[in-house]
Amino acid sequence: MQTVLISGGGVAGPTLAHWLARHGFRPTVVERAPALRTGGQAVDFRGAPQLEVLERMGVLDTIRAARTGMGDIAIVDSGGRRLARLPSEVFSGDVEILRGDLTRILNEAAPAERLLGDSITSLTERPDGVHVTFEKAAPRTFDLVVGADGIRSKVRELAFPAAPLRHLGFYGAVFSVPGTYGLDHDGLMHNVPGRCATIVRTNGRTRAALDFATPPLDVGHRDQAAQRALVARAFRGVGWQVPSLLAAMDRAEDFYFWQAAQVVLPRWSSGRVALVGDAGYAPGPGGMGTGLGMIGAYVLAAELATAPDDHSAAFAAYERRMRPYVEVCQKQAEGADKYLVPGTRARIRLRNQMMRMLPYLPGKGMVKRMTDKAASAVTLPDHPGQGARRPARPA
Predict the structure, then answer these.
(1) H or E segment at 234?
(2) DSSP state of 256
(3) Where does the pLDDT of residue 363 fall: very low under 50, low under 70, confident under 90, or very high at 90 and above?
(4) How confident is the model at residue 1 (pLDDT cuts 50, 70, 90)?
(5) What is d(CA 155, CA 8) in angstroms, rounded to the nearest whole number?
(6) Is 262 strand, coil or helix?
(7) List of residues 6+ apart from 99 with CB closer than 8 A
(8) Which residues touch 367 (CB under 8 Å, ≥6 apart)?
(9) How many CB atoms lie within 10 A of CB 41?
(10) Under a CB-based contact definition with an 8 Å cutoff, are residues 348 and 266 in contact?
């Protein structure tokens, strides 16, 4: 029975653990957080392949039961007057769920040993496997190691040549806020040049997002004090509901700061070490990274199960199958800054005008059709002994 260490307990990690365990591998998941994170931003799935992976895992119905049911987001001016709307079918996909709820569901479906509150400190490949040291746990040797630990992947840092992130023009913060702001499964969005404040309420929880255009910043990805200060400085003087959001941000226990960026690598494996999801090919906002990561984990497990005694062949087959899909998803994310944080008032007005016209255009479903086409640009392999199944469809 092969042992596989998976770094990262978010989305791709437990998905990979689920499928490896079904094929007789022995997965261990190491996660820096001491407990599963709750709340977080909403993520979505769209297109038949993404829904099919959820159905084959047996979690699609559970995810649908926990979906946000998110409606439209109204674009408003500083006085709260509604200027345009973002239709939910454009940004919510076929099913939308809070990331924390998704993480819980996926981890419940993944039988694996877990090392919580710990992280990898070194990787040394030997003839018998990969020798791994941890911050807390005793050193161990695993047959394979997979980095599913996000855009700031420790596994990528240790096992792959340094590659800078491809910055997409902005940063953002997501956090819970008190009150409802008059919302119920809908949202509000306000722009000034280079900045965007959004409030949404779903499932009895209100969350805010503060996004701002900027060149790459030199800020520690775990230095929350510095991150909060950056957000406060970026939104200083902005009106509407922003002052109350900044006050809530200072008290929020679930504050999460992120960079809109892509990971672009020539290879996703090195010896006995491989990358999956954002760790290897983060697409950025609008690139369907959650569904992409789950499909990547599904495909990687399928190839390892097909060639259990030849990890090199399995990793190569995984890359051949996934790279065209990754390129489509990364292309889909390009230009997100021009849509979310337009740099001038004229560009904000143009974006709003396009949103107002969208319901009346002959091709008003074009945006959704384009994103669904991109989301479906992959053919799922059957796992050994699985047999073909009819693709899942949106509810």
Answers:
(1) helix 224-234
(2) E
(3) low
(4) confident
(5) 10
(6) strand
(7) 10, 11, 37, 39, 40, 41, 42, 43, 290
(8) 90, 358
(9) 16
(10) no
- State the DSSP code for 244: H
> Containing H/E element for 48?
helix 48-57
Q: Provide the 3-class DSSP secondary structure of residue 30.
A: strand
DSSP-assigned states of every residue in 114-164: EEET--EEEEEEETTEEEEEESSSPPEEESEEEE-S-TT-HHHHHHS----
Scan for tokens 């040394």, then name that residue.
124
Question: Which pair of tokens denotes residue 38?
Answer: 């709750």
Q: Residue 165: is it exposed, middle or buried by C-beta count within 10 angstroms (0-12/13-18/19+)?
A: middle
Region label for 198, one of left (φ > 0), alpha (ψ between -120 and 50) or beta (otherwise): beta
Residue 364 has pLDDT above 80, yes or no: no
Residues in the chain, overall count: 395
Q: In Å, how far are 60, 287, 379 from 51, measured between CA atoms? A: 7, 16, 13
